[in-house]
Amino acid sequence: MELRGERLELGVRGRRSRPWRILFYLALIASGVYFTLMVEKGSVQPLFLPTPTATRNAYSYALEAKAHFSAGDLGSATDAYELAVDLDPENAQLWAELARVLIYFSELKPSYSQRLETLQEAKAAADLAVELNPDDSFAHAVRALAYDWLAAADERDRQGHLTEASSAAEFARHLAPEDPFALAVYAEVQVDLQKYAQASQYAELAADSVDAQSEFAADVYRVYGTVLENLGAYNLAIEQYMRAAEAAPNLTFLYIRIGVNYRRLNRTNEALTFFNKAAQLNSQLGIQDPIPYLAVARTYLQMGEFFISALNVERALAFNPANADIYGLLGVVFYKARNYESSISVLKCAVDGCTPEESAAVLCEFVFACGDEPAEDALNNTVIGLDLNSVSLVYYYTYGSALAFYSGSEGYEFACDDAERVFNQLMASQYGSDPIVAGIVQEGRVILAGRCSGISIGDGAVPPPGQG
């Protein structure tokens, strides 16, 4: 080694003092101590803790909705799809699936107004689905289905809805000419356009081509059953509805359709079997649905078994004590049983509406044992009277007839004027030209003319107050 005379260093050179660095470390230590104390007090949450509930995405809610649909809980399926579209509002598929569930959910609604409202929601969802993805055949097919069902529920614009349904069904079939769902929807629209040959052809083609394990097998078989039912082939319709029920065994409205077709064949035992099956399924699912009981009631009414019919309507009314349609059916049952006095109080709720006090009196008399303190909200319902339409028509003329029968009786001084008011409504409507309706009105006015002053059989005019 070459030595150059440098001094050998045996220690480390001293460093200059850095007071700012020391202060920084002291501050860091103090902050750590303060943060630890805050965590212990609960004022501050530690970093990287898991969230209290897992964050869900739209796909997760869509899967939940499908599970609810398979279980027959269409209300929960609707709720789940609504959460899905809230998270992914640009997803056309989700909007179309929501619309499809809403369409079927409308079948479980016990009143005309509720069905109409649900179908309008379905229409809006389907319109948005097509707007988001104009090339999606499924979205167009669902849109066609929504407008087609809406045409049956909304008499005011039936033709306009059918035109829209036809256009959407044609476009869906154009986009996917071999898709069973699109073909089935096209067939359902054709049957409502009274193009029965085309409806039968495409419904059969869809049923033959659909995979029995497909998500839409129940839709396809249901449509084929609907087409056959409209053709009067009730036995064949039952077969297709059975296939639909095999594909979707928890959809209660399918059992209702099977029962209705058996009832049309006068096979009442089979009809009641399937109506009761729907009721039992709802009970298992925890769904308070009055429709199976109403179906049972109509079957017994057709059989002339008025007492059993009334019991089932009353059970339905317990589920939905503000539903004017159910009051109407109960009133018809009472009238058929010649219990005219009871029919008047019940039909008033259906036609004119009832205050909470009036509806509570009906419910306490026929539905609840009020001495056993029924739920308070069940007795606090304002019942909105039904507009005159094809569904409520029977309630109107039955109400008028019952009032006419009791006109002139003690305690029924109002019956003359109320009966004539109802008859005037009927004759001024589109139903006034119907010979059956006109005959019922004429018969009622004959009774009124013999018991009430100021009633003319010819024009039915009621004089102004004080002149009768």
Which helices and strands occur, and which strands form pairs?
Elements: H1 19-41, H2 58-71, H3 74-87, H4 92-106, H5 112-132, H6 137-153, H7 158-175, H8 180-192, H9 196-209, H10 217-230, H11 234-247, H12 252-264, H13 268-285, H14 291-303, H15 306-319, H16 324-336, H17 340-351, H18 356-366, H19 393-406, H20 415-428, H21 435-451
Q: What do you see in this structure?
A:
Helices cover 68% and strands 0% of the residues. It is mainly α and 468 residues long. The longest helix is centred in the first third of the chain and has 23 residues, at 19-41. Mean pLDDT is 87; it is low at 1-15 and 459-468.
Q: Tally the helices: what do you get?
A: 21
> For the residues shown, what is the average pLDDT?
87
Give me the secondary-structure category: mainly alpha
Largest sheet: none
How many DSSP E strands? Answer: 0
Strand content: under 5%
Unreliable residue stretches = 1-15, 459-468
Order of helices and strands: HHHHHHHHHHHHHHHHHHHHH
Shape from CA axes? globular
Distance between termini?
143 Å
Work out the helicity level. Answer: 55-70%
What is the gyration radius calculated from CA atoms? Answer: 34 Å
